[in-house]
Amino acid sequence: MFAMTLWLGNSAYLYISVAFAQMLKATMPVAVFLLGAAAGLEAMSCRMFLIMLVISVGVVVASYGEVSISWVGVVYQMGGVIGEALRLVFMEIFVKKKGVRLNSISMMYYVSPCSALCLFVPWIFLEKPKMDSSGPWNFPPVLLFLNCLCTFVLNLSVFLVISHTSALTIRVAGVVRDWVVVLLSALLFSDTKLTLINLLGYGIAIAGVVAYNNHKLRKEALRMSSEVRVDINNAEKSPDQEVQIALLPPKEDK
Fold this sequence. Notes:
single chain; mainly alpha; 10 helices; globular
């Protein structure tokens, strides 16, 4: 799933702008929620359905406002979104449901070689002929090292957040990052042209994500308060039980 996300997500940048790709990534909470509900990790409700519907409508509006849209790039990006959603859900199942006790570094130790192998096979048939025909290979070593370092830090942070929260939380926490990427790409890249409809649709999608975040915080607060009440009740009952046990007369040996 990780290799699928990298392949399809990076291929999308050949057809669509960075800003529009980030707008399409706003559908990630919808994909993770639906897959999580199918796997039994999330509870389906009317309120959650409405929140996910708001996010989807916002992305549709943002797509309608795109000046030069490429449906090939949209398909690539949505395929990467589905792959990322599946990866996050599987990681949550392995970490929380299946009792896998690997730390973040150990998890990356197993995932990274498998992802590299899965990417190496299509690279031979799809990317390598194009690179050979364009002339000698030229990889700036410093730029390549910084790219690898950023990828390592990103993956490590994802594993840490998922192990302590959930798969959907990692997507909600990336809202600010997505806004920064959209605005910076509009300033740095000449092919990125944001329209008022783009920003309006993306704002609607982000409002849906914020609504989900608020809903989840309330749910977590109620759960924690109920656990605290249960602990208090157990602490109040335990001294009485000990007194009753102490007052019982010892059994006589026959």
